[in-house]
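RECORD TYPE: protein structure
NAME: Glycerophosphodiester phosphodiesterase domain containing 1
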Amino acid sequence: MCAAVYVLSTVTGYVLTSALLLKCPTLLHRRKRESFFSRHISHRGGAGENLENTMAAFQHAVDLGTDMLELDCHLTKDEQVVVSHDAHLRRSTGMNAYISDVTYAELPPYLCKLGVTFQRECYCEGGEDKRIPLLRDVFEAFPNTPVNIDIKVNNDTLIKKVSELVIKYDRENLTVWGNASNQIVKKCYKENPRIPVLFSFPRVLQLLGLFYTGLLPFIPLKEQFLEIPMPSIITKLKDPSRMTKSQRLLTWLADTLLMRKALFDHLTARGVQVYIWVLNDEEDFQRAFDLGATGVMTDFPTKLKDFIERNGIAKPQ
Ligand SMILES: *[C@@H]1O[C@H](CO)[C@@H](O)[C@H](O)[C@H]1NC(C)=O
Ligand SMILES: *[C@@H]1O[C@H](CO)[C@@H](O)[C@H](O)[C@H]1NC(C)=O
Ligand SMILES: *[C@@H]1O[C@H](CO)[C@@H](O)[C@H](O)[C@H]1NC(C)=O
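PREDICTED:
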């Protein structure tokens, strides 16, 4: 009897403390200091409106007033940090080679037309600019624009060189970097802990485990950005009639577990920004902001800008 009362009061105490700290995390953790907030994030510079990851795309997004450029990095054979998505050049340029096997001077231009990964049956026709840029070009052209860098290969030289560029261009407070791989994020953090990192995929799973057991409010976090997909958009990318019942169930489950306002509110109160990718429809923009996401990554920066203006979505203070 006595033991039961003891267990009950301990459990109640834990649940109440966890609930209180979930709502008011700054009672336990110092809020991380954000040097920028991003509502409007241009995915690969806005892959639906210009050729992905080109200077023309970045210029267009910055001219529109985007809060952040999202881009991907690789290393060429002569160890130049270039901005491009795939490790292999076939899809984007038609050349049968890996970026790491050609020098910067040998890199081919992009094809005239590229598929938009997160928009079904959509191709983007490019303008004049088909060049694969250097990361340095982006830093020089947009010295004040925050950049989200996806480190696409687990290569120590790449990580070191990106950090050197970030330092050289005085951008430690304008950068977030990482990858879905936890190994890469750990290396990034070790290389330069002053550059904020995002949650790797294994860390997202851990985060959910902590959240659903009520432990999250007690645990310190090194990451400053949660960047996650909205699983429900899979049904738009695939033909829903061709998804099996179990695929649909998994999608629903992932969406239900991941898209939690209580989780997003807790993280943002701790100074961890929440970005949802890659959304191209107004109903999804609306859902992300309703859930308390800090920002949205889109292939269509003009569309997201119109939406944000029309709905008066202001930046948090
Ligand atoms: C990193 O990339 C460079 C250039 O592509 C290559 O020479 C080097 O072997 C790579 N290092 C590792 C550890 O993969
Ligand atoms: C993370 O890095 C791996 C290589 O280690 C790469 O294949 C993958 O595309 C990257 N993923 C993301 C989401 O950047
Ligand atoms: C970045 O922000 C921190 C915290 O405010 C500040 O101490 C530091 O000087 C800034 N670094 C740069 C390079 O501006």
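COMMENT: The domain at 51-185 is CATH 3.20.20.190 (TIM Barrel).
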